[in-house]
Predict the structure of Lipoprotein.
Amino acid sequence: MNRSRLRRSPLPAVALAAVAATGLSGCMYFSPQQTTKPYIPADGNIASVGPVQLTNVLVVTSGKGADGKLQGLATNTSNKPVQLKVQPQGGAATTLTVPAMTSVRLDGKTNGNDTATVPAVSVAKVPVVPGKEMTITFTITSSGSSNPVGVPVLLDQPPYGTATPSGQSSSAEGGKEG
């Protein structure tokens, strides 16, 4: 008995295998690249007002109604010193002088090898609980240009705070010794 055999081409099977391998391999051909999307790679917010760039701006506090500290970096990109007024939501304004072509920390500390500092900016009676945002308006006094910025409020704990209530040492954990 002779049976005639039909020869099948392996081409459809190879094509199907290639399509299946591409689909199952997690190919990102149709997905956007995450590195092309802008994002804020920090806990704080970014903004600009006139020649001043603000980065990682946030408020650290122990809770709603308590005093807070503004943290972040103000970079003056101009050739002249700039007067920057910082007006927290419902609080008193503070005016800082940011030297030309310099970055200063808003917490009053030095920035790396740069010795320029500004007075620390405090926020009296933070109006929101940690985890929410409050508005701080930054204004260039010479031009009047301003930018209200939604600034995150974080709990006073590392890396931005100490998690130790003022007036207590870190060993005072609430229990009696004895």
Q: What stands out?
A: The chain is about 10% helix and 35% strand. The mean pLDDT is 83. Helices lie at 11-24.
